[in-house]
Amino acid sequence: MTKTNEPVLHIDHLQKKFGKFEALKNVSFDVYPGEVFGFIGPNGAGKSTTIRTLLGILRANGGTATIFGQDVFKDSVSIHKRLAYVPGDVYLWPNLTGGEIIDLFLKLGGSMHSQKTDDMIKRFQLDPTKKARTYSKGNRQKVALIAAFSTDADFYIFDEPTSGLDPLNEEYFQKSVLELKKQGKAVLLSSHILSEVEKMCDRIGIIRKGEIVETGTLAEMRHLTRTVIEFKTIDPAPELGSMPGVHNVVTQANGLQTFSVDSDHMTEVMDYLAGKQIVSLQSTPPTLEDLFMRYYNTDENTKGGVKNE
Ligand SMILES: Nc1ncnc2c1ncn2[C@@H]1O[C@H](COP(=O)(O)OP(=O)(O)OP(=O)(O)O)[C@@H](O)[C@H]1O
Ligand SMILES: [Mg+2]
């Protein structure tokens, strides 16, 4: 990711109210060319509202958002010439065939059916001759994805695009997004499939109740949490449990010991264990799912922050 470039998307303190309800209180993040940005958060957090504001469908009540340096609401017509968007629940005209709808989507977006379109139809194994009303949810999503991936845009926005795809098509989706990234395109991907986000996204923004609570790379976010270590040493390591940053030291039936350690105390702990002659050691960093659960299990009723319980 080259951050020297100007961001494709720049959001600064975006706010959106529905009546008195503040759906977006404070949303700020940037997406750069050649970057896949993962946008995650629980149901109702404000992901689709943010995206609908970016598309110029909703008008913000405060803050600013620009795409290609242009205002998302005032300049939406010009922005949309270089933008592709796929929603999670795709509406299709029931009496048109998949192929006709793909071409219609392309035309509406100012593009045309190309070799790329045929390649994508093949990749996602869609039968484009069938009427849309006969399509399953996954097939409806494929229609929108094929149109988006065969559009030559500079910025691609996907709002939970894979919820109806089987694992094979999910893989084709990931492959197609990585191809966009390689071409230097910018991608905003909202998803509940955290393994997908973990695998594909360069940076991640977590939204909660209309506010961005964390932005960064997965590695940066992992620093906020603990790593689980399983090890065996020749000499006993009795001081481990009282070392700063070490938690939950447990000796298992097989003689291996496990504990968790705060990232900022890792070095001292590793030095200590090395002095006890390590036979085996395995470290498991927290997954995005662990991080996500940590955020959302911490609501008003439970004390303590996200960082270290
Ligand atoms: N048109 C609307 N009028 C009133 N409230 C709305 C409207 N659109 C969204 N909301 C509310 O704004 C909040 C954010 O909704 P949004 O659809 O952005 O959530 P989301 O993060 O996309 O959730 P999900 O993961 O379920 O897709 C929700 O509380 C929702 O009920
Ligand atoms: Mg949504």
Automatic annotation (TrEMBL):
<dbReference type="Pfam" id="PF00005">
    <property type="entry name" value="ABC_tran"/>
</dbReference>
<dbReference type="InterPro" id="IPR003439">
    <property type="entry name" value="ABC_transporter-like_ATP-bd"/>
</dbReference>
<dbReference type="InterPro" id="IPR027417">
    <property type="entry name" value="P-loop_NTPase"/>
</dbReference>
<dbReference type="InterPro" id="IPR025302">
    <property type="entry name" value="DrrA1/2-like_C"/>
</dbReference>
<feature type="domain" description="ABC transporter">
    <location>
        <begin position="9"/>
        <end position="234"/>
    </location>
</feature>
<comment type="similarity">
    <text>Belongs to the ABC transporter superfamily.</text>
</comment>
<keyword id="KW-0813">Transport</keyword>
<keyword id="KW-0547">Nucleotide-binding</keyword>
<protein>
    <submittedName>
        <fullName>ABC transporter ATP-binding protein</fullName>
    </submittedName>
</protein>
<keyword id="KW-0067">ATP-binding</keyword>
<dbReference type="InterPro" id="IPR050763">
    <property type="entry name" value="ABC_transporter_ATP-binding"/>
</dbReference>
<dbReference type="GO" id="GO:0005524">
    <property type="term" value="F:ATP binding"/>
</dbReference>
<dbReference type="Pfam" id="PF13732">
    <property type="entry name" value="DrrA1-3_C"/>
</dbReference>
<dbReference type="InterPro" id="IPR003593">
    <property type="entry name" value="AAA+_ATPase"/>
</dbReference>
<dbReference type="InterPro" id="IPR017871">
    <property type="entry name" value="ABC_transporter-like_CS"/>
</dbReference>
